[in-house]
Amino acid sequence: MKAWTSPYMAWVRQVQFTQMAREATMLDYLHEVDHMGERVKRLEQAITEAVKLATPAVQEVVKGLQALRGIAEISAVTIIAELGSITRFDTPRQLMGYSGAVPSEDSSGKRTRRGSITKTGNAHLRRIVVEAAWSYRYRPAIGPDCASDKRECRNPSRRSPGTHRCGSRNAMPGWRRRARTRGRSSPLWDANCWASSGPSGSRRKRQSRSRWRPDKVQEQKQRQKQKLSKE
C-alpha cells in the first residue's frame, strides 16, 4: 500500500487509539490534510478558469505544452508563468541557460571538462521541467483525461493528428525506446546536449557507459599473445 493514496487514507481513518491525546492529535492531522487537499482543488480550479480567460495565443501555448509527456495544465501554466514569452529566447542554449539546467564548465586550453548543472537560473522553472522529464522513464499510457471505455481522448491537445485517440497509443515500440535511452544518466541528457552544442546546432556525441564487449576482449587476448610470441 502506497502512502497518501485513497486506500491508505481509508486505512488511516479507521485507526483508533485508546488514549484521548493521541486520538485528538490524529484527528487534527487528518483535518489539516483534508483542508490542504480542498485548498489545492480550489487553486487548480482557479488556474483552469484563468486559462479560459487568457488570450488565444497563451491558450495555444498551454495546449502545445500539454502535448509533451509529463506536462498537464498546471505544469504548462507554471512554465508559461516563469518564462513569460518563449519567443524572447533566440536559441535553445539561452532557454536552458535561463533555467540553469546546463552543465558547468571547467575547461582550459585543449582540455574540455564539464560537470553537473549550474543551478544558477530560475529554480521554479527547473523544478517543474525536471519533474516532468521523469515521466519519460515509464512506458506511455493513457491518463485520466481519456475515457476508459471508448479510449477517446477528452483533452484535444493530447490527441493524435486527425484522430480522436490519445497520442500515447501511437508510441514507439519498447525496444526502440530502450535503444534511444540506453546509456543516458538522466532525462536532462537531451537538454544538456542541446545546450552544449556548437554554433552549428549539431548535437554533441554521447559518451556511452562502459560495457563488456566480447569483440574487444578477443582483441585484447590476441594482442597479449602477439606480445608473448615476440618476447
**On the 0-100 scale, what is the average pLDDT?**
76
Query: How many strand units?
Result: 2
Could you tell me the strand content as a percent range? Answer: under 5%
In helices, the fraction of residues equals: 40-55%
C-alpha Rg, in Å? 25 Å
Strand order, biggest sheet? 1-2
Question: What's the story with the biggest beta sheet?
Answer: 2 strands, antiparallel
Separation, N- and C-terminal Cα atoms? 66 Å
Q: Low-confidence segments, ≥5 residues, pLDDT <50?
A: 147-152, 160-165, 167-171, 185-210
Compressed to H and E, one letter per element, the order equals HHHHHEEHHHH
Q: How many domains, in number, for the residues?
A: 2
Structural class: mainly alpha
By DSSP (H or I, 4+ residues per run), the number of helices equals: 9
Morphology: extended
Structure description:
- With 231 residues, the protein is mainly α.
- It has two domains: 1-53, no CATH class; 57-200, no CATH class.
- The protein is 49% helix and 3% strand.
- It has nine helices and two strands; from the N terminus they run H-H-H-H-H-E-E-H-H-H-H.
- The protein has helices at residues 6-13, 20-52, 56-66, 73-83, 92-99, 123-133, 174-181, 189-195, 214-230; strands at 103-105, 114-117.
- Strands 1-2 form a two-stranded antiparallel sheet.
- Strand 1 and strand 2 form a beta hairpin.
- Helix 5 crosses helix 8 (189-195).
- The longest helix is centred in the N-terminal third of the chain and has 33 residues, at 20-52.
- Mean pLDDT is 76; it is low at 147-152, 160-165, 167-171 and 185-210.
